[in-house]
Structure formats: structure tokens, C-alpha cells
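Next comes a concrete protein, fold included:
___
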Amino acid sequence: MNRQEKQQCIAEVQQNFEQSSFVVVLGCEGLSVNQFQGLRSKLREQSSKLQVIKNTLSRRALVGLGQADSTLLSYLKRQVALVFVRGDAAAAAKVVCEYQRDVEKLTIIAGRLDNRVIDHEMVQFLGTLPAQEIIAAQLCGVLKSPLVIHVRLLQQVLVRLLVVLRSIQEKKEAEVQ
């Protein structure tokens, strides 16, 4: 790789870091090409990108972004791959965690979520969260339930009022006859 190719690679990595809301650092020593391709294809479905980059180029990209003091630099050791997530972070973390269970050689080292470095346990926790659509649906259900209760209470008050009015009408009709 010549100097110009390295600069292009650094620029691409910087662009990926800037556009990604979530980045995962994976230890990938001993993984086969087929295993990488399987993970890449699953991550593509989640609007994510898996890249294996030299650590020195990744470090230069982070330094160029002004994140040299970031502790993510300390995780760039040995053979690592970076997952750049532009979509739902929890869905991508779930894919990585499930793939890690299947492939023992894959390890989650760390991550960066909204410019904060998180450890592997937090990435695994993100993998246990439901998808964003499910969380939104659950939130709607939680917000809807008090409203439904109030509507039912108001409906019962109206029904009781109608019952009382009906009984008054029946009494008046009975008095008239």
C-alpha cells in the first residue's frame, strides 16, 4: 500500500467514524474469510459496515478527527475489525452478539456510542435490547394505557347517567299511568 492509498484509507475511515452513530471494535484473530463474509452480510442488513483496517491507519484517522485523547485508541491492538453502524445501534449490536455466540474466535473489545467509549459488556447489553421499533411500540402502549383508562371511566360515568335518566323516565311514565 503506497502513501496515497494509505491517505485514501485514512480519509475513508474518518468519514465512516463521522457518519456512524455506533462503532464496535472486534477482535478477529483466527477468523476465516467465510466467517467474515457471513458477518458482513448480516451487518449490511442493519445499515452497518465491517472493515478490517491496519491499527496504525485507524489511529491516524482518530487523531485526524481530533479524538486522539479518546480511549478507543487503547483498544486498537492486535488484529481488529471495526463495525460502523449508521442505523439502529441495538440491532447491529444484537447481530454482533449473536454472531459472537456462533463463532468463538470473534471477540467484542469495545465500542463508541455517540462519541462515548463503552466497554464490551455495554455492547453486549445493547445486543439484548429489543429493536427500536419494538421499544417505540412499547412506549406507545405505556402512554396509551392511562388515556384508555380515563376514557373508560368517562364512558362508565355516562352509562351510569343514562341508567339514572332511564329510571327517572320509567318512574314518571309509571306515575302518569
Remarks:
- The mean pLDDT is 86.
- The first strand starts at residue 22 and ends at 27.
